[in-house]
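Q: My labmate handed me this sequence with no annotations at all. I'd like to see what the chain might look like in three dimensions before we decide whether it's worth expressing. Could you predict it?
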Amino acid sequence: MFDAVATRYDLLNEAACGDLLESLRAQGEQEFPAIVRRVEDNPAFDYEVICGARRHWSVSYLRNVEHREIRYLVEERELTDEQAFRLADVENRSRKDISDYERALDYRHAVETFYGGVAQRMAERLEVSKTWLSRFLDLAKLPTDVVEAFGDIRLLRENHAREIKPLLADSGLRSKVMAEAKRLAAEQAALASAGKAHLEPAKVIAALKAAAASPRPEVKLAKGATVISSDNGAALFTLARKGPKTVVLELALDADASNADFRAAFQRELQRLRPEA
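A: Here is what I predict for the chain of 277 residues:
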């Protein structure tokens, strides 16, 4: 039995494999063999498909659904995990059914697993430029809320990451961008639930940039009050001294920060204002 482990196998369907299905129907046979390697210590599968997941899906479809007598042709090779990754990448790089974001996640896993976290080393092994690879690695680093702001990961491209990266790198803008990303993600989920199309990526990018460009709301502080912020620039609370031994703390409950951020900041200020003996 074969385990077609191409990471996007579950997304394959008649539309994604339409050209291959037509070719197999016309020729009555598989033109090029898939590349597989033997799997050890797995009672469910004997072989792992390295290159040829679309061929595996298409042949299986034609055999099981259309009852055509087409064999799945394979070439067995002995491959290390790193060799298998590089071989699969060569085939998958031109595939249209794999999104940029999914490919980026594969690259992020590979650079840590096979290349010691060194992008240059991985780029040399894949025979691509470090700049090209770094764009995909940057895409994989996008926060989950930003990814979900696009609604469908298949709409998220590496060029989008290039536009968003400077907004997230600026500590003064990051909190506003993240807040807008959460709002967009909720809107995208509502559209999907209603059976409507997602917002176009261009509109998502424009909304994130607009949020970053919006002025910070003016905060009127009492005389002598201090604003305590998180590492990403989100205002957490203000401290105002009301006497020699009294300090009033006012929480910013709508801040784009976690409770852990609040607790850490409070502990720091408590230690500063009331150091332990």
